[in-house]
Amino acid sequence: MNALESVAAQELNRSIELEVIVVDNDKFASAEAICTRFRAAHPLVRLSYVQELTSGVSYARNRCLREASGKWIAFLDDDEVASPRWLIELHSTASAHHADAVFGPVLAKFCGPTPDWLRASRTHERARFASGTRIGWRDARTGNVLLNRELIKTAGEFDYRFAKTGGEDSFFFACALRSGARLVWCDEAEVHESVPLQRMTKRWLLQRAFYGGSTFTRLNVAIYGRHVYIVWAIHGAGMLLIYAFPALFSFILGRPKWIFYVQKMVGAVGKLIAPFSKFTVYGQK
């Protein structure tokens, strides 16, 4: 509900018409009641609710693309809250820099006390850039983005091979870059993401690092070909060697940053096992 409320509170120019689409990827339609309450509270907001029964983030995002009717399409996750000038800042930057897609910062909002080791891990921190900076696919995500509908014609839809693992957004924008798209950053378009308690544990952080390393390698294979498996396997082995000593040293001395080094090592293991996960290279069957 907070995400929808933040969209309803957007400061928009009169020339901009807002269309809100909620795609519910839950077979139990858990978001339907929320949308009903929102409509009652905001009768002037044009809101559409649809249910996507095929589970997976790629299916949900592609349903968003199919349901949207505007020239510009913005994505906001259900656990995020947008700042009041979120859309206007994204749109202004797109116009000023002739961008095909504009991205903004996602800032973590912890739902509980944050221990030193959690902050030292930097898991919930993401890179930020000066507004107008052109960015690559590694920093391109759908958690906070405004994209031109024309981009779909060149980048295609979100790839279903990443539906269960994530990374579908990075691959989408990598395809867009290949076709000459211009991806730009807008640092003023902030959104805040709630970090629940279950994502504030060492177990969750290390699991994320492992699967993140594997998905990152699979993304590179999908973009550049199978030969990069060797590159990232060597890279993973090197990371294990590089971070082993500082991880042990920090742990013995009781320094909170030990978790940062261990995350790097676990991510490296994920890169090493990536070739053994079932995956199809883009364009092949």
From TrEMBL:
- Identify the stretch annotated as signal peptide in this record: none
Q: Does the keyword Transmembrane helix apply?
A: yes
Q: Which domain of life is it from?
A: Bacteria
For the Glycosyltransferase 2-like domain, which residue ranges apply? Answer: 3-128
Q: Which UniProt keywords apply?
A: Membrane, Transmembrane, Transmembrane helix
- Asked if Membrane is a keyword of the record, the answer is yes
Its transmembrane ranges are 229-254
What is the protein named? Glycosyltransferase 2-like domain-containing protein
